[in-house]
Backbone:
């Protein structure tokens, strides 16, 4: 699983002109899934994300996790995170999982994030044309790939 995590003051997902989800201070998590991803990747990634110390403490140092600041999370599926640009100028998405594999893993990831945070999280809609509004805080943007744990 490949993620782009952004620390945000607020974020939202709009589908067909209607807001599906919106959060305040927290993390916007773009999630790309490939065929070799599994429940073990979900467990590792969720633990890594909820413990990332990327929120400011009282001294303005990034030393607090989303749990410690009682932040919110919004998870948006994004198959384009697995784009290959090695050949030509048109990206290939051959590594991105098909919906029948990706949707259950996306849903499980969202459930585990919600459990880890002890609150409902915001989500996008798999396969939908989503408009994502972001007020990036910092900016702080972190890339994590569960296939590169070391």
Residues:
């Amino acid at each position: 699983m490949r993620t782009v995590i952004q620390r945000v003051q607020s974020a939202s997902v709009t589908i067909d002109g209607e807001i599906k989800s919106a959060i305040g201070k927290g993390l916007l998590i773009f999630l790309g899934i490939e065929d070799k991803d599994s429940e073990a990747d979900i467990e590792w990634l969720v633990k890594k994300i909820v413990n990332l110390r990327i929120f400011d403490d009282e001294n303005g140092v990034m030393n607090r996790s989303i749990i410690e600041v009682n932040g919110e999370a919004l998870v948006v599926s994004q198959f384009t995170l697995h784009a290959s640009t090695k050949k030509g100028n048109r990206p290939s998405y051959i590594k991105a999982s098909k919906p029948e594999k990706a949707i259950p893993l996306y849903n499980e990831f969202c459930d585990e994030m919600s459990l880890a945070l002890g609150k409902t999280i915001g989500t996008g809609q798999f396969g939908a044309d989503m408009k994502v509004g972001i007020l990036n805080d910092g900016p702080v943007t972190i890339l994590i790939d569960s296939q590169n744990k070391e």
